[in-house]
Amino acid sequence: MLRVAVVGSGPSGVYTAQALVQQTAVPGVRVHVLDRLPCPYGLVRYGVAPDHEKIKSLQGSLRAVLEDERVSFLGDVEVGARGLTPAALLELYHAVVYCVGAARDRRLGVPGEELRGCFSATEFVSWYSAHPDSARDAFALDGPAAVVVGAGNVAVDVTRLLVRRAAELAPTDVPQGALEALAASGVRHVHMVARRGPGQAKFTTKELRELGALPETRVLVDPAELALDPAYGDPAALPAVNRRNLEVVRGWAADGGAPAPRDIRLRFFLRPVEILGADGRVTAVRFERTEPDGEGGVRGTGRYEEIAAGLVLRAVGYRGRALPGLPFDPARGTVPHEEGRVLRDGAVSPGEYVAGWIKRGPTGVIGTNRHCAKETVEALLADAPALARRRVAADPGARLRELGHTPVPWTGWLAIERAEAALGRSLGRERVKIPDWEGLRAAAREA
Ligand code: NAP
């Protein structure tokens, strides 16, 4: 028998477990999927926006993997805590696959980022997703204006959520505290600001289009900013997704739509140089006008503009976090590897693997992780004869408990699901997420 630990139960972790149990080359594989949280699904639960029901429904297929008899979910187990180091894990399992994602957010590196009212988009996403590390009252949305820096899908998500009305979110599982804060939100104007043009933006067209379909909201684009885009005159040279993005944005520039209670302004060729504040709170963002540098990037022009805002969200990408005891490349924010095999000082470390964002960086859609996990599992299976000879503890679960971990089993997660359904009923809603550690652990104990 080959016992494998998968660290992280987000898409890359679950796809790794799936690839391990669906193959026939190495029979007798057993997989423990460990997660720091009592709940599975990683960013599908704590990152995908609540109004993206279709993507959320992926939980159904991830669930089927975690319910496979050869797979066990062990929630509330933090690798790196209570002596559970990577070295200790290797004494428990023949192989360990780290699928820990990219948990940190990137910073702008400009003065004023520490001001109250300036957050990473990840903090905002965690808050409306009921992540238990997020403070329940983290966001008071006084308004009237917010700036979102970045032009990726996360920027689009948080922009959309900032203008959604509570009635649209009530049928989702958004936590009650966030729903009430969004209902009371005074935010009327959201400026989503990109340092390059729509022809180079990272968002995908389907997500971009959704901004134009939001009730009581219009999208405004300044045609003069579009004309700065090097692809403006010749969109045919762009990759298909960028060309479609440019077309959508051009449509909005030509027809701003009727005045509406809320608006989203898409701004281009502006890079943040300072977050301005008064009395420790954000009041505006100072941007420098940029222009194409002819090589796909931009350069500053020495002309500046300020956009007033009481809330600033930086949505400029994620970064991997170093896990003590595991090699880490700080420049790339990933674990060095060869086809998924972890490299220590350039040499393969027997039994240690990576998949997902910690392997390749925070890019791609959820499905990208399936291919990524498959490559890693193929490497692991090729190594299986040597891995099976490694001496490991007879009962890893018992050893985890000895170290002071109290894993939440799958039945504990099912109990959390029931508690969230009951919470929803008590609030006259469907299912409502439990937003705190105590609540999640108490619900899991009901199993
Ligand atoms: P991303 O796609 O890498 O976008 C980051 C954005 O931040 C880019 O527009 C980038 O501009 C900008 N940026 C970076 N540094 C900056 C700086 N110092 N100043 C100003 N702008 C800066 O990252 P993401 O939005 O966090 O998304 C991460 C991944 O998750 C992506 O693969 C995304 O597609 C995926 N995701 C998908 C969905 C969905 O499918 N619905 C939802 C959320 C996330 P430059 O291009 O100029 O560098």
Question: What would you say this structure looks like, in words?
Answer:
The protein is of the alpha/beta class. It has two domains: 2-103 and 320-408, 3-Layer(aba) Sandwich (Rossmann fold), CATH 3.40.50.720; 104-318, 3-Layer(bba) Sandwich (FAD/NAD(P)-binding domain), CATH 3.50.50.60. It has helices spanning 11-22, 42-46, 53-56, 59-66, 86-90, 121-128, 153-163, 166-169, 176-183, 205-212, 223-226, 240-254, 357-360, 368-388, 396-402, 410-426, 437-445, and strands spanning 2-7, 29-34, 71-74, 95-98, 104-105, 118-120, 145-149, 189-193, 217-221, 262-267, 270-278, 281-292, 298-308, 311-314, 318-319, 337-338, 341-344, 347-354. It has a seven-stranded mixed sheet. A six-stranded parallel sheet has the order 6-14-7-8-10-9. A hairpin with a 2-residue loop joins β11 (270-278) and β12. α16 (410-426) crosses α17 (437-445). The longest helix has 21 residues, at 368-388. 45% of the residues are buried. The model has no long low-confidence stretch (mean pLDDT 96). The structure holds NADP nicotinamide-adenine-dinucleotide phosphate. The site of NADP nicotinamide-adenine-dinucleotide phosphate has 26 residues, from α7 and β11.
